[in-house]
Amino acid sequence: MRPFDVPKRENVSNENRQILDELKNKIGFTPNIYATYAYSDTALARYLNFSNGKTSLSNKEKEVVNLVVSQVNGCTYCQAAHTAIGKMNGFTDDQVLELRQGRAPFDERLDALARLTKAVTENKGKIDDEKLTRFFDAGFTKENLVDVIVGIGDKTTTNLLHNVTDIPVDFPEAPELTETIS
């Protein structure tokens, strides 16, 4: 039994109804995870402001972070959503699977980002100097590092929300990984 059902539009605050309507108009549907944020009168707007804030990372780089973090945190909802979004940002099916493993052998810069993101997420920020050096040697800056950490926090929030509530995934299911490479 799921501890939570996805709230219906009529069961959320007027402010959240407006936000959910805007999301539906923009995306074409209301993702269940956003509706779940709407259980709180303030969390949905607060999360969207955080998630949609400016960053020094490109859309592709943000998707690297999202895919790696969602895999490490075992969030099937975000794995599915970011598999779809990753493909919309130009990643192939195989590249998405590699990114979820925390690597990007197809691109040296993205590989450094994926490996750093995986290490930070798995080790709660306590990483070895090699990962950080490789990240900076790939051309990333201290600003990028801060934005990666903020991105990890952003995605972890949604991963935790889904992992606790176990609401239905309304994106095409992400393929399971057959092997994990460090």
Taking all residues together, what is the mean pLDDT?
95
Topology order in helix (H) and strand (E) letters: HHHHHHHHH
Supply the CATH superfamily name of the largest domain: AhpD-like
Span between termini: 35 Å
Second CATH tier, the architecture of the largest domain? Up-down Bundle
Give me the CATH fold name of the largest domain: AhpD-like
Q: Catalogue the unreliable spans.
A: none
Coarse shape: globular
Largest sheet composition: none
Structure, described:
With about 180 residues, the protein is mainly α. It folds into two domains: about 10-50, no CATH class; about 60-165, AhpD-like (Up-down Bundle). Helix content is about 60%, strand content about 0%. It is built from nine helices and no strands. The protein has helices spanning about 15-25, 30-35, 45-50, 60-70, 75-90, 95-100, 110-120, 130-135, 140-165. α4 runs antiparallel to α5 (about 75-90), α4 packs parallel to α7 (about 110-120) and α4 packs across α9 (about 140-165). The longest helix is centred in the last third of the chain and has 24 residues, at about 140-165. The model has no long low-confidence stretch (mean pLDDT about 95).
